[in-house]
């Protein structure tokens, strides 16, 4: 009957539409969406799967990565690759929402010995190519225009003389424009500017030290440089972390450091029922003992941490279930429950201890229990 009513109402509205100028009276099939059969047929559709996926994403925990660059720069690995691998591994714990790194100026000027050796070899190779002693098997290709060169210095000069000047002209046009024209210029030159930046990043852009700050920013980290005072980065990172815990912005704290000064912060995070993960190279450190899970940089780069994170999450779920089933003894609560049960029962126990005499029991004025009765009657 309900479906028949819906059909009548639907035909009524289509009749009104046809009276307004529509030539053909087309049946309205919208009632199927509210019928039981439509709901049944759509139960296993992609829409329901997308909605379930959305609910799952909403229920995910917020993960914050806090990187102490003073104590734990990626010395053995390229910083951009290390940051990307770290993010991929920590995604297993939830939605990586915050990426924060602190360091002073000296940390950003650090260059690993392997990189110093590579730069020295590249400089010597440029001189040999310039003199014609060495010729590369594969020519150097300009990533902007595709032109080929058989010397690295010629490629550098080509980028500086032609493409760098073109990039400067584009930026000047955008800076001088206003309003809609500026928006149109940005849309027009965006691909060309990105193409030049990608080509010039490794060749023309001067790197301070290892290029640590720029590489981490490119990976999505918020990088903050602090003063050169001792422990300045640790203090700033610790205060930032505590502030985010107070505001309940993170559910899982990932600390990239080997500094034992952060042990108190990790213990405080666990007391607040937050998940804690440490990334460092010290196997038996105080931080790893205080955290729920710990990984080394080798495990992060090899992808082993991403696989082990799944088992860590399952272990956390089991711990939560056991915690909900845990019974705790509270003396005050148990005493109140016990007295309330006794007071509610209408039994003779209360009358017995109340001192009321109903005549059936004769009370004798007996003495103390330690006094014996010496006067016995003789028959």
TrEMBL record:
Full protein name: C2H2-type domain-containing protein
Record's compositionally biased regions (Acidic residues): 343-359
InterPro entries: NYN, Znf_C2H2_sf, Znf_C2H2_type
Domain of life per record: Eukaryota
Record has Zinc-finger as a keyword: yes
Region feature (Disordered): 340-367
Species per Swiss-Prot/TrEMBL record: Cinchona calisaya
Keyword list, A-Z: Metal-binding, Zinc, Zinc-finger
GO terms, molecular function: zinc ion binding
Domain C2H2-type: 140-168
């Amino acid at each position: 009957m309900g479906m028949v009513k819906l059909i009548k109402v639907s035909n009524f509205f289509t009749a009104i539409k046809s009276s307004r100028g529509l030539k053909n009276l087309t049946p309205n099939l919208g009632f199927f969406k509210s019928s039981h059969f439509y709901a049944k047929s759509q139960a296993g559709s992609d829409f329901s799967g997308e909605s379930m996926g959305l609910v799952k994403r909403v229920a995910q925990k917020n993960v914050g990565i806090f990187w102490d660059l003073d104590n734990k720069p990626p010395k053995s690995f390229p910083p951009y690759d290390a940051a990307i691998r770290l993010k991929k591994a920590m995604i297993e714990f939830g939605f990586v929402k915050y990426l924060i790194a602190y360091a002073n100026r000296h940390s950003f000027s650090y260059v690993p010995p392997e990189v110093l050796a590579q730069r020295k070899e590249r400089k010597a190779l440029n001189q040999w190519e310039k003199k014609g002693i060495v010729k590369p098997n594969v020519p150097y290709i300009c990533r902007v225009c595709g032109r080929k060169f058989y010397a690295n210095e010629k490629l550098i000069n080509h980028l500086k003389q032609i493409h760098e000047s073109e990039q400067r002209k584009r930026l000047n046009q955008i800076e001088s424009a206003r309003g809609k024209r500026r928006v149109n210029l940005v849309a027009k030159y965006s691909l060309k500017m990105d193409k030049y930046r990608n080509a010039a990043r490794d060749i023309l852009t001067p790197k301070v030290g290892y290029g640590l700050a720029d590489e981490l920013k490119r990976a999505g980290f918020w990088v903050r440089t602090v003063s050169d005072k001792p422990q300045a980065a640790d203090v700033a990172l610790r205060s930032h972390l505590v502030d985010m815990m107070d505001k309940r912005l993170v559910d899982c704290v990932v600390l990239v450091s080997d500094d034992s000064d952060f042990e108190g912060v990790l213990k405080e995070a666990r007391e607040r029922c937050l998940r804690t993960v440490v990334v460092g190279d010290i196997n038996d450190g105080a931080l790893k003992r205080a955290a729920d899970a710990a990984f080394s940089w080798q495990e992060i780069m090899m992808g082993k941490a991403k696989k082990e994170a799944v088992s860590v999450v399952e272990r956390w779920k089991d711990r939560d279930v056991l915690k909900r089933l845990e019974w705790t003894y509270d003396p005050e609560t148990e005493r109140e429950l016990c007295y309330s049960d006794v007071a509610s029962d209408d039994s003779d126990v209360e009358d017995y201890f109340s001192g009321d005499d109903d005549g059936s029991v004769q009370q004798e004025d007996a003495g103390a229990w330690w006094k014996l009765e010496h006067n016995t009657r003789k028959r």
